[in-house]
Amino acid sequence: MIVLVLAIAFILRFFNLATVPPAVDWDEASTAYNAYSILKTGRDEYGKSFPFLFRAFDGYVPPALIYLNVPSIKIFGLNALGARVPNATLGSLTVVGFYFLLFELTRRKNLASTGALLLAISPWHVTYSRVDFFATLPIFFVVFATYFLLRGLNKNKFLVLSSLFFVLAILSYFSAYVFVPLFVIALVFIYKEKLGLKRAFVFTAPIFLMTVFILIFSNGGQARFKGVSAFSDQDIIKESSEFARQDGLIGSVIDNRRIVYGQKFLEGYFASFRFDFLFGKVDQITRMVVPGAGFGLMLWWDLPFLLAGLYFLLNKKPNGWKVILIWLVLSPIAAAPTLPQMTSTRTTLMIPALVALTSYGFYFSIKSKGKLVKGILTLLLAFNFVIFANGYFRHFAHENSGKWFYGYRDLFTFLNRVENSSKKVYFVFKQPDILDQVYMFNLFYNRVDPAAWQKNGGTKLGCIATTGQVTLERYNFVPYACLEKPMGWSLVSDNDLVVVSKDLGVNPVDVVKFLNRDNAFYVYRYGNAKESLASEIKKKEL
Fold this sequence. Notes:
58% of the residues lie in helices and 6% in strands. The protein has 542 residues and is an alpha/beta fold. The longest helix has 30 residues, at 371-400. The chain starts with a helix and ends with a helix.
């Protein structure tokens, strides 16, 4: 059974992997290119040698996925397939680890097999296993780390593996910085009698040392939290201060910013359990929303069994119930204080707990039912999954191509054509804009030599904490925010090319389109577009 489930998991995660999603987004391009840069030079895009945390655009990211990308890029090349193979592989293997974990918790093969199958076909897990995002990676490490801990209660070698895998989870994604230490504390408390004080200390020490190092001594770890935290939102601070001032003594208590922060935290925490988030389409990561009815991050089929599983856990208290319940309770905490709320990336660690609950509910609900009932429920599951698969593999790429920055490959293919190869190219854009991180897509699609990029000065900080004004060979990247004084357009040849994301009202040399045929980029001869370009820049509309 588990071999068949593993085969299903691999097929769903590798089928058309390079084309669904339809293109790499800027995070995937950044991760893959930095892996390519490490492979070729041992340095990242900023020229830093083998960094512990990688700088990416306006923040920092943990290192595990980028270093895992290095052998994949070496084998498959700097392309979408090379970027996505690590997560697709580990996402598939997570299904096996989940089977072993559920069996270790429950000692019920049928329940463990059910859980593995539901994880294999989970819309949330399938879609995130097919992209080069950090969010999926810690699931693999946490699932195996928890399994190794359970085995390690009797054999110390597994305890060492568990500690190592929890550390790797922390190095995978920022949500794990918070979840892992809390989860480990809970596990130690649950199994304190079997662990003992000495073994518990040896097991937890590396995990907490890594957490402290990242969150307290690493500027990058702190920067990431501050960048997405509601506690750093100046509008919230100003609003609460103003209310407190207007309402006097009562306001100083009710509108105290600490009370407001608590409210925001609770609001964010419970938002992760909302029906329209788990089963609808309100995910703020809109490029990951799959078109179609009958599913969201989870299948609608899951809902009654998810509720049944929660009932059985709280009332029947079957084997393993404490681990699953604590996992569910702790997993949204890291995302709770962040903005925007209801983002599927920051809550991916909920997936195993939700799938486990659904598996418990399904197993205990149908345990005494006849073959007919079991068959009908299985057919309903298959039908619901087919609806999701149809939406994802047939419609997702077409409808979401704009959100996935589709068109960059076609754009650079056009710009590199023989008749354009001697012309300078100026990318002019505001921030944010679809061209905002165009320099990274140039590095990725043109496979720019990392040594040449670093010799050119590497990535430069921008005027609003994104990319600054950069020139590399014939390509010029010009964020409007960097134009504090008029650019020397008199030095630009009339035959040079200007790329913008807006129709300038003159005949373009080329228009690059998304898959749905909407216009993505406009390429103009500077001689034809300079008056319109100057007008747009003056109006600050580019």
